[in-house]
Amino acid sequence: MQHELEGLHKHISFLQSLDTDDFYEKDEDEVRQYAHEAITSLVHMGAEATSEVVELLETEFTWSSYFALKILRETKDPHAVPYLIEFLRRESDDAMANEEAMFALQDIGDASIDPLLEVVEEEFNHKHYNFYLVGAFTGIIGPAPYDFMVNITKDFLQNHHHYHGWFHIDDFTYNFVKQERKDVLPLLKQILELNVLSGDERREIRDTIDVLEHPEQYYRDMQDMIDDLSKES
Q1: Which of 35, 47, 92, 223 would give a disulfide with 77, using CB separation of 3.0 to 4.6 Å?
Q2: pLDDT tens-digit map of 50-96
Q3: What span, in angstroms and rounded, lies between the C-alpha atoms of 11 and 4?
């Protein structure tokens, strides 16, 4: 047990040692090579490392906080949920780290749903839209996220003035694709008829409808695009 604790502290300290100007000048792949052993070991420790790993999460960007998010995404420990939510509530300017926190909450799955629902409802009550918190919640497949999305979309249809200036309907509805529920299609088509939508919003919602109606074509197009990019690189 003592040996394991010493190993844990050693790996945490090593990740913190990367938080220097010299390493900030390097790209992620290069820094990850230095961090590989520590990251792999902490992932292998799983939930036993969570209490130490979450302490690395910072408001501002650091390599140690970014790799901590990578580790938490792999270990999927439900005990990390409140720390990941708090990280996103700080609204860091670093999109790369925010995305990792969002995906970590999605990958943890069911254990993230109730805490995320509580905080998203609270923020909506204050007319605040946190892109990554909303994405974390609506990106988890299940009845609670789906029902919340449907209820909000219906309310937007009836009371869109309430959402003016703070809500992003096109972004919010996109994760209906991940929910894979075609029964929402009539509702989305009603949203398209609203005259308050911008051109970009209308285009994004139409894309969501197209993906839900023709998922096979969408994924074929995506694969073709990936193949084309691979040939160019």
Answers
A1: 47
A2: 999 999 998 677 999 999 999 999 999 999 999 999 999 999 888 99
A3: 11
Sign of the Cα torsion 35, 11, 3, 79 reads negative
Instruction: Return the half-sphere exposure (C-beta side, CA atoms, 13 A cut-off) of residue 129.
Output: 15
Q: Does the CA dihedral 132-138-142-145 come out positive or negative?
A: positive
Residue that has been written with the tokens 């902490």 in this structure: 42
State the Cα–Cα distance between residues 187 and 149, nearest whole angstrom.
Answer: 11
Q: In this structure, what token pair is assigned to residue 77?
A: 């420990």
Do residues 42 and 71 lie in contact, with contact meaning Cβ atoms separated by under 8 Å?
yes
pLDDT tens column, 144-166: 999 999 999 999 999 999 999 99
Alpha helices in the chain (DSSP H): 2-16, 21-24, 28-45, 50-53, 63-75, 81-89, 95-108, 110-125, 131-138, 143-158, 169-174, 176-179, 185-192, 199-213, 215-232
3-state SS of 37-95 is HHHHHHHHHHHHHHHHHHHHCCCCCCHHHHHHHHHHHHHCCHHHHHHHHHHHHCCCCCH
| Closest of 48, 27, 53, 26 to residue 38, by C-alpha | 53
Q: How many alpha carbons lie under 13 Å from residue 17 in its C-beta half-sphere?
A: 9
**Model's pTM, two decimal places?**
0.90
At 21, list the tokens.
Answer: 């100007």
- Give me the residue spans of the domains in the chain: 1-140, 141-233
What is the Cα–Cα distance from 191 to 185, expressed in whole angstroms? 10
